[in-house]
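Sanity check

After download, print the first record. It should look like this:
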Amino acid sequence: MSRTSPEATDVLVVGGGIIGLVTAWRAAQRGMSVAVVDPAPGGGAAQVAAGMLAAVTELHYGEETLLGLNVASARRYPQFAAELSEASGQDLGYRACGTLAVALDADDRAHLRELHALQRRSGLESEWLSGRDCRRLEPMLAPGVRGGLRVDGDHQIDPRRLASALVTACERAGVTFHRRRAERLHVVRDRACGVVVSESATEGASGGAGDGAPDGSAAGGTLLAADRTVLAAGSHSGRLAGVPDEVRPPVRPVKGQVLRLTVPPGYAPFLSRTVRAVVRGSHLYLVPRLSGELVVGATSEELGWDTTVTAGGVYELLRDAHELVPGITELPLTETCAGLRPGSPDNAPLLGPTALPGLLLATGHHRNGVLLTPVTGDAMAQVLATGELPPEARPFTPGRFAGAAPGDLSDVSLEQPV
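Expected structure tokens:
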């Protein structure tokens, strides 16, 4: 038998990653009473992400619609970062340092040339450089670099600092945190009315959503009532018990392994900007922080809920990074980690109301969660306040997957993600 919390909130956000936090913060700024359910707010994929704000260099064929949302969010980042820094009193590690995408062989050079043409057709700004010009910008690059694209508009931010700042900003805006696991969605007369949460924060997974009991019920727990519930639990968004199959978000976990190295004090700057490349068919990036940290990533693996850091993954990243920047093997390796991106069928987010009244989604951001944080917060706050999504978010409603199979979650491992 569940107990009911004493007061209902206007908005209950399930998931305390950066997407859930920015939704809560922006909604609270509009005067709504807001609560967040998550055992460890500020965790999730942001703790692993590199923080590239790469609307231009992340452009992929067939994702032109997503490009519009990415560009809209990138344009908001300078003001968003300044506002959040002031609201939280924290430095976000935001850098307008630009990105250099380079090619190591003739095939990669041809691919970059095609990408450059696509960028230009899409109205994006990028500059083609010779290999020599690339090495003038970044002297640590390997002599074999054959050419590259300079994109001054692709910036970076530290996702761990971003998450921490959002937690503080939420607290200062009056958001209530329930450091518990969401066990199941509470539905009354075909309307979502909140969630039942576990009794203990140590029960269940990070990300704010779990699977509940086998029959979809929860033994005990507390009901947190809300007028509207936002499911923003990242890769776990499809696992919350009680969500009807027809509105269950079709998200899946996509594993990424990342390394962190440190440039020792007194060394000359190793890289001045983010460097990206395709090495042996695998995408590679190196993101330098002002603190001396150098983030190297990332693998992309469809392995369910596995978050094991593997020797093979570490080896491949270091091997490819060494081929791009030979001096990297002299740096101390300070951290290895793996996380789960929330992938959707079209690699784009699900934003806004579902067919179940009272239930909204903010999930499925895949590799663009950090980049899309500002525009997601604005879009979710607007739809919560007015019932209407802004124009840039309308192509990404959950309804575009109506009738799609959400995926059989019954046979997946229940190992808890990092």
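If your output differs, re-run the checksum step. Summary of this record's structure: Confidence is low (pLDDT under 50) at residues 212-219, 405-418.
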